[in-house]
From TrEMBL:
Coiled coil: none annotated. SUPFAM superfamilies: Nudix, Winged helix' DNA-binding domain. Residues 2-138 form the Nudix hydrolase domain. This is NUDIX hydrolase. GO terms for molecular function: hydrolase activity. It comes from Streptomyces canarius. Keywords: Hydrolase. It comes from the Bacteria. PANTHER family: ADP-RIBOSE PYROPHOSPHATASE (PTHR43736), SLR1690 PROTEIN (PTHR43736:SF4).
Length: 237
């Protein structure tokens, strides 16, 4: 039995949630898009170290600049035609990631809109669509009850930029006033920065940074799709 690590790397590009995919340079599934990842370098390499190594090779990012957490273990029989291969998948999130450079075993690498993967428009190798789906759902769920949204932002951000994160990850528009009220109601979620305001083309917007609170209470509840003409609305409105 062989062990690999796979990475669901998420970022926002031009306001859209995107996932990093590589084009496989060898069989199986040569030429198909897949998640970045690979086998452990040696029997003594720790799984988390392997995840950080793959992250560094694919994005040149280190642990201090990215949110990285273990997602799940995938070990279904037949998931890999090479034999019994178990993958320990990780979720990685960072703001403003640059254009990727393909690694040694990939022909190309690119940011792909997450919706194109979720919808099946982009077909992935192995069971990587399932892993991406699980990773995005993890991010969507954690945005409700944790400060994970700030991992998509730079060190300083406006509330409008934070709202853009929620809208991109959740895939729905939010009422600006209601969002502002809910964010401000969670003490310690974000705190005002000392570096003034940012010009947004209109009235300068106040800057914030991530606060000390990691668990949000009250939580920011994800909107529930509506079948009425009103479209999607947040619970409790």
């Amino acid at each position: 039995m062989l062990l690999t690590v796979d990475l669901v790397i998420l970022t926002l590009r031009e306001g859209r949630l995107c996932v990093l995919l590589v084009e496989r340079g060898e069989d199986p599934f040569q030429g198909m898009p897949a998640l970045p990842g690979g086998f452990l370098n040696h029997a003594g390499e720790e799984i988390l170290d392997a995840a950080h190594r793959e992250l560094s090779e694919e994005t040149a990012l280190t642990a201090g600049w990215v949110h990285l957490e273990q997602l799940a273990i995938y070990g279904d029989v037949g998931r890999d035609p090479r034999g019994r291969v178990v993958s320990v998948a990780h979720l990685a999130i960072a703001p403003g990631l640059p254009e990727p450079v393909a690694g040694t075993d990939a022909m190309d690498a690119a940011w792909v809109p997450a919706e194109a993967v979720l919808s099946g428009e982009v077909e992935l190798a192995f069971d990587h669509r399932r892993i991406v789906t699980d990773g995005i759902e993890r991010a969507r769920t954690k945005l409700e009850s944790s400060a994970l949204a700030t991992a998509f932002c730079g060190e300083l951000f406006t509330i409008a930029e934070l709202q853009q994160v929620y809208e991109a990850v959740w895939g729905t528009e939010l009422d600006t006033r209601n969002f502002y009220r809910k964010v401000q109601a969670v003490e310690g979620f974000i705190v005002p920065a000392d570096s003034g305001r940012r010009s947004t083309g209109g009235r300068p917007a106040r800057l914030y940074r991530a606060g000390p609170k990691k668990v949000l209470f009250p939580p920011l509840i994800r909107p529930v799709p509506s079948t009425t003409e009103e479209g999607t609305r947040e619970e409790g409105e």
